[in-house]
Amino acid sequence: MTESHPPSEDGSWHHEIGTPSFPAAPSRYHLYIGTFCPYAHRADLARSLKGLQPFLPTSIVKPYPKEPGGWRFPSTSSEHPGSTPDHIHHSTFLSELYFKSFQEYKGKYTVPMLWDKESKQVVNNESQDIMRMLNNCFNDLLPRDNIKQRELDLYPPDLQPQIDELSSWMSPDLTMSVYKAGFAPTPSAYASAAKTVFLALERFETHLSQHNKYIYLLSPDRITEIDLKLYTTLIRFNPAYHPQFTFSNDEELGNMRDRAPRVNRWLKHLYWKVEGARETTDFRAIAESFCGERVGIKGPEEYLEPWTEEDEMWRVKRARE
C-alpha cells in the first residue's frame, strides 16, 4: 500500500509520477482543473500537446462562484458547459478532495491538482511541477508510432537556461502583476503594477524582434514550456484582464495588438495553428470567472483576431528558413 503523504507547510504537494510511490500507469491518475485558471490551463495544455488524454482523464470545476467551500463541480454534465462533475468522487466542492487526502489540511483549494486513485491522495498541486511531469512521465505509455508526441520535449536540456531566465521575470512582472493591477487598492498601486505588466510585454516584443526567424519564443520549430506559460496568461487579456482590470481604458499603456504586434502574432499562431491550444482555451469560462453569468456566448474572434493570409505567408516563410 502506498504511504500517505501530507502536504508541505505551504499547503502544497510536490510528489512526482515515476517514483516508487507513484509509478506511471495508465488511468491511475486524475487531473482536476478549471479552464478559467491560467495555471490549470498550463497543465491541461501540456496534457493535450503530449497526447495524454487516454491515460489522464480530467474533472473540471465551474468558473464561478468561488464559495466558502472553494471551487464547485456541477451536479450534471449539462449544468454548465465546459465543466464536469467530479468523475471520481462525485464531490460537490474541490475542497472535499483536499480533506480526503489530508484531514487536517489548512491550505488553499487550488487547481491544477493531480490525484492518485490507487492511494487516494494528492500527488501534486503545483502547475510547473505537473507540467514538467507530463512532459516525460508517460512517454513509455504512448504508442510507439506516435513519434511526434513521444519526442516532444517542453523542457529540453539545451533550452533550459533560457526557459528559466525568461520564467524568472515573467512570473513576477507579468503573470502576478496582472492581478496586482486588477486588485490594486489605490490608483498609484494600479499604475505601478500595470506599467510593470506592459514593460514585460515590451521585453517579449524586443525578444521576438531580436529573433525574427522564430515562430516560438525560443526556437523556429520547437514549442517549449515558456510558450505555454506566456500563452495561458496572454490569452486571458481580452476576455478578462482588459475589461475587468481596465487595461483597455488606459490610453498611456495602449493594448497588446498595438504595443506588441510580434507578441500578438505569436499568440494568434499558437491559438489558431498549434493543435491543443484552441481546444484547451475556454473563453467563456475565462470571462465568467470574472463576470459570472453576465457573460454571453461569444466566438473566439471576439477576443482574438483571425489568422489572415498575411499571417500564413509569414508562418510558411519562417518554416522554410
How would you explain this protein's 3D organization?
The chain contains twelve helices and four strands. The protein is mainly alpha-helical and 321 residues long. It starts with 28 loop residues before the first strand and ends with a helix. The model has no long low-confidence stretch (mean pLDDT 91).
| Average pLDDT taken over every residue | 91
Radius of gyration: 20 Å
Please write the string of helix (H) and strand (E) elements. Answer: EHEHEEHHHHHHHHHH
Report how far the terminal alpha carbons are from each other.
54 Å
Runs in which pLDDT lies below 50 for 5 or more consecutive residues are none
Number of helices: 12
- Which structural category fits the helices and strands? mainly alpha
Q: What is the number of strand segments?
A: 4
Q: Going across the major beta sheet, what is the strand order?
A: 2-1-3-4
The dominant shape is globular
Largest sheet: 4 strands, mixed
Helix content: 40-55%
Fraction in beta strands: under 5%
Task: State the gist of this model.
This protein has 321 residues and is mostly helical. Helix content is 43%, strand content 5%. The protein has a four-stranded mixed beta sheet, sandwiched between helices.
